[in-house]
Amino acid sequence: MSLVEPITIRFGIVGCAEIARKVSRAINLAPNAQIAAVASRSPEKAAAFAKANNLPAEAKIYGSYEPLLDDPDIDVVYLPLPTSLHLKWATLAAQKKKHVLLEKPVAVTVAELDQILAACEANGVQFMDGTMWVHHPRTAKMREFLDDKQRFGELRTIQSCFTFAAPESFLKDDIRVKPDLDSLGALGDAGWYGVRAILWAADYHLPKTVVATPGSVTSDRGVILACGASLQWEDGKSATFHCSFLTHLTMFLTAIGTQGTLQLNDFIIPFQEHEASFSTSSRAGFDEQVTRWEPGPRQEVVGIDGVPQEVRLIEEMARLVGEIKVGGAGKVDREWGARSRKTQQVLNAVKESIEKGFVPVEIA
For the Gfo/Idh/MocA-like oxidoreductase N-terminal domain, which residue ranges apply (predicted)? Predict the structure, then answer.
């Protein structure tokens, strides 16, 4: 538990993407954060965003990005920009001593992310990506189950999936299908979650090899619309994931151990905001007549105590920044950047495997 007195951390939002609406609500709800400014490519668009999303009346409006980065009243910059713009603006934000909350996928390549992380390191600022579900209290409860050698045993297999059926307008015009803006397509947008979930279940140990599943779908502009891959660890663990813009909304995660199984069907966004559940089974078998399981699976429900996962993300970022403001750059938590980097490594390996004809790619 932190001994630092709570400090209100001032956020600046750079870019008015759709996801920024959800994050601005979270900042408004977080007790240790406030929105101090918003920037867009025009002052009119920034002002319209501020009004539509109930930003504080004192929040500053900027008609371009760099003046917000120069604002001495800003502690943290939230960047929901197209992925191809992350390197420029995240690096510049860090150089101007702003802590960086970066929307996923965090970069086009690992090399780009390394430049961002190096800028954050050199300037003593915190980095965190915008993956929300890892901050949900359900995630901590699931971790307890996976770490229980009696109930779960040793992790052997993981499966994850995130798909949604995007409308034709999305497939034609959305930023996430434009090669000059988000060249990773569904792999970066939806696949990020599946890969992060696999790494989370594996306690962030990287696989040895990754091989994309034949049958990936790309647009006529060469952007991935659907793909999957299998991952293999040196100790024999394996995992698979699938992501798509082309099939019905699905988001499941399954982790199978030698003694138990964890399953849930809403790991990214819970079915209900006020609570979330997951299913566990341990040492299961069949009854004598082989008509039912003994023991059956157990459903565990976790409440949020009135604090949604995206608010918890903001609270954690603000807490870390508050500790840095008091204790200096030595308080920077580098684990968040390391987790983002590992996720990016796997994404890029999958893309490389697809481009080389679905061959195995080793993770360095």
Answer: 9-128
